Amino acid sequence: METINAIPLATNAEGYLKNYNEWTKEWAEEVAAQYGITLTEKHWDVLQWLRQKQAEDVKLNIRKVGNSGIVDIKQFYELFPGGPLKISSKIAGIPKPVSCI
């Protein structure tokens, strides 16, 4: 359980939201700050794309994000350094993709 803006949100042991529908932009900003990331318009574009694909039940991997038309793989790594898919998924409030260790 993590508290974001005084609202307790249920998370798993790795800090991913248990309920995708509880996600807010404030949640995203606070989680991003934990990684030293200030969210830009491009970050938000990626996060919204990830959330849309989650809603469509698409199994995500870095190659799919790189082929999204929003960012290429290099840009994805620049936006979310240190594990782009794992970190961006957490910020987007979606479950950790199975392709992430």
Description:
There is one protein chain. This protein is mainly α. The protein is 46% helix and 6% strand. The chain has 5 helices and 2 strands. The chain has helices at residues 25-34, 41-55, 62-66, 73-79, 84-92; strands spanning 2-4, 7-9. It has a two-stranded antiparallel sheet with strand order 1-2. A hairpin with a 2-residue loop joins strand 1 (2-4) and strand 2 (7-9). Helix 1 packs antiparallel against helix 5 and helix 2 (41-55) packs across helix 5 (84-92). It is globular, with a radius of gyration of 13 Å. The mean pLDDT is 88.
Provide a short characterization of the protein structure:
It is built from five helices and two strands, in the order ββααααα. The protein has helices spanning 25-34, 41-55, 62-66, 73-79, 84-92, and strands at 2-4, 7-9.
Describe the biggest sheet?
2 strands, antiparallel
Subunit arrangement of the protein: single chain
Low-pLDDT stretches are: none
Across the major sheet, the strand order is 1-2
Secondary structure blueprint with pairings:
Layout: E1 2-4, E2 7-9, H1 25-34, H2 41-55, H3 62-66, H4 73-79, H5 84-92
Antiparallel strand pairs: 1-2
